[in-house]
């Protein structure tokens, strides 16, 4: 290899984020989602026989992917439902789990995000940072004023982490009452003994909170995905200075 080729190879970042451009990009993201949701969390997926996680919202959404250029693998993904696409959908995806009546006046300026996951070998923070950078660019391009969606916590431990996490967050990060949402199937908080010791914040929820997001109420219980879902709302006007400088410039 020539010296200039070696230098170019060294300067090229290993990880990069971009919007999915074709059906194959989306399928690779769906495969990663299957590995995480079904393989790790025990989710029961309608598309399991295909080895992917796919639903009716995938065609309406834009998809972020983080690629490892050393292997060609998709190691992180997020999907986004723009306000224009949401008008073509029967409802927001989150409405399957929550009553969002109090947020109805925000709909035209709200970008719903979800199906976030990171490959088990890449959960040190770099992929989450790239996904947030991609989200910030996307929200700017779409002109959105609010970012909202569910952040999931696995229930493979019987729900102890999820309950402890909510008890940890409710005193400091709950939204104003006018932005509160209500789960259709609440996680039975009173039936799980939560640990009195603080639990580590999952990377996705940590990212939301550092950016300035609210937790909009009690988590919902999603039996199909074997997880508790926390509804998060980030008014872009609250985007923390640290995130604004790092991701938006």
UniProtKB/TrEMBL annotation:
Its EC number is 2.3.2.30. One of its GO terms (biological process) is lipid metabolic process. It comes from Chromobacterium violaceum (strain ATCC 12472 / DSM 30191 / JCM 1249 / CCUG 213 / NBRC 12614 / NCIMB 9131 / NCTC 9757 / MK). It comes from the Bacteria. This is L-ornithine N(alpha)-acyltransferase. One of its GO terms (molecular function) is ornithine-acyl [acyl carrier protein] N-acyltransferase activity. It is an enzyme of class 2 (transferase). InterPro entries: Acyl_CoA_acyltransferase, Ornithine_N-alpha-AT. Pfam families: Acetyltransf_5. It catalyses: a (3R)-hydroxyacyl-[ACP] + L-ornithine = a lyso-ornithine lipid + holo-[ACP] + H(+). Pathway: Lipid metabolism. Belongs to the acetyltransferase family. OlsB subfamily. SUPFAM superfamilies: Acyl-CoA N-acyltransferases (Nat). Catalyzes the first step in the biosynthesis of ornithine lipids, which are phosphorus-free membrane lipids. Catalyzes the 3-hydroxyacyl-acyl carrier protein-dependent acylation of ornithine to form lyso-ornithine lipid (LOL). The keyword Acyltransferase applies. The keyword Kinase does not apply. Keywords: Acyltransferase, Lipid biosynthesis, Lipid metabolism, Transferase.
């Amino acid at each position: 290899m020539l010296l200039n080729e070696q230098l170019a190879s060294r300067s090229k970042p290993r990880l990069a984020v971009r919007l999915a451009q074709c059906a194959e990009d989306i399928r690779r993201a769906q495969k990663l989602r299957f590995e995480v949701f079904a393989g790790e969390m025990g989710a029961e997926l309608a598309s399991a026989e295909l080895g992917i996680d796919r639903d009716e919202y995938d065609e309406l959404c834009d998809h972020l992917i983080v690629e490892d250029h050393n292997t060609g693998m998709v190691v992180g993904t997020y999907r986004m439902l723009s306000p224009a696409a949401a008008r073509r959908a029967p409802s927001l995806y989150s409405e399957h789990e929550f009553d969002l009546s109090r947020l109805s006046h925000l709909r035209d300026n709200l970008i719903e995000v979800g199906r976030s996951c990171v490959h088990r070998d890449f959960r040190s923070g770099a992929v989450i940072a790239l996904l947030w950078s991609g989200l910030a660019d996307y929200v700017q391009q779409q002109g959105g004023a609010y970012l909202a969606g569910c952040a999931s916590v696995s229930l493979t431990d019987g729900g102890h982490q999820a309950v402890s996490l909510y008890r940890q967050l409710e005193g400091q990060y709950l939204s104003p009452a006018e932005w509160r949402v209500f789960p259709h199937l609440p996680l039975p908080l009173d039936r799980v003994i939560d640990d009195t010791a603080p639990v580590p914040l999952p990377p996705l929820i940590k990212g939301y909170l550092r950016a300035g997001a609210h937790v909009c109420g009690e988590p919902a219980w999603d039996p199909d995905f074997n997880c508790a879902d926390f509804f998060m709302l980030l008014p872009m006007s609250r985007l923390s200075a640290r995130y604004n400088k790092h991701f938006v410039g």
